[in-house]
Amino acid sequence: MAVVKISEYLKSNHIYHGDARVLLKKIEPETVALSLWSPPYFVGKDYEKELTFDDWKHLLHETIALHYEILKPGGFLAINIADILCFKDESMPKIMAENVSRRKIDLTRAQILKVKDKNPDWNRYKLAEYFGCSEQTIDRRLHGNNIRGGKYQAQTRVFIVGGLIERMALDAGLYAYDRRIWVKDAAWESSRWHTISYRAVDEFEYLYVFWKPGVTKVDRSRLTKQEWINWGSRGIWEIPSVRSNADHESKFPIELPRRAIKLFTDSEDIVLDCFIGSGTTALAAISEGRRYIGIDKEKRSVEISRAAVASYHEYAKEPQQMELMVQEIEAKYEAKTET
Ligand SMILES: C[S@@+](CC[C@H](N)C(=O)[O-])C[C@H]1O[C@@H](n2cnc3c(N)ncnc32)[C@H](O)[C@@H]1O
Known about the structure:
The chain is α/β, with parallel strands linked by helices. Helices cover about 40% and strands about 20% of the residues. It contains 13 helices and 10 strands. It has an 8-stranded mixed beta sheet with strand order 1-10-9-2-3-7-6-8. Strand 9 (about 270-275), helix 11 (about 280-285) and strand 10 (about 290-295) form a beta-alpha-beta unit. The longest helix is centred in the C-terminal third of the chain and has 20 residues, at about 320-339. It is globular. It binds S-adenosylmethionine (SAM). S-adenosylmethionine (SAM) binds near residues 280 and 297.
């Protein structure tokens, strides 16, 4: 690790602009109780479009490797990530599925145009859902082409990320401690292949938790009895996806980092998120009385996060408002678990 002067260490309760792989080297060794982040998933989002698959793997590998130094002994790295559900694999045999139900579809261009006339904003996925066929059928009827390029295009498969992440963590000296499944809202719209295969829709992600060897204080009083029952001891966390993600396209719900922060840290501990996005982890840390360090390579994300934190601190000027905000977060969760 490069030698960093003490005065140059990143300060807690700040959001920094820069590459995680550069800035993690500036965090004071053995000070982070929990590092919790959700990296690019290699699914073509704006902030990752320049990454090749190898670049993506290097990004994860380097970032994980840099954690050993900065985590407190007995501390944790929690990674929220999903499998890649539509991974193009050139090496896969190009064999098109025989879609029996599709062959039976007796659908004409005129029928589609009639429905489209009544619903001009419907795209080919919505039309496919309506007619119970694939979007290729819609496209073929409307334009006479095959949008997938048939058997000449690379096949797609599911890429399972868990093994890759575990190997990277082991290389870094971190051990798999736990894994939870976050059940989010089912993404019917973006799981369009489910109509032409046996695959499930996209509706869960993982939280992989890695441990840095050292004494871990197990303090059961961090959660109430009810919280242990509701989620502390549970492997599956049902948390609705963020309703409005206009400020950042891949926000996770605040309840996700909030739970991990409550479980794995004490008051005033430092929580790090080196892919801070819209600042969710920082907000969760503040709401639980922890310190945070945020990092993001996109200026826009840094600005959004700083603004989110600042508005939270605005509440802090009026403690009652702050309490209301935290209560609101809790009430949403309670409402969910009672149903
Ligand atoms: C999945 S999003 C995180 C969203 C965040 N959890 C939230 O709730 O808003 C990933 C973030 O990582 C950032 N990012 C991508 N590559 C990065 C890198 N090399 N260093 C730091 N940030 C990076 C992106 O700009 C993006 O904001």
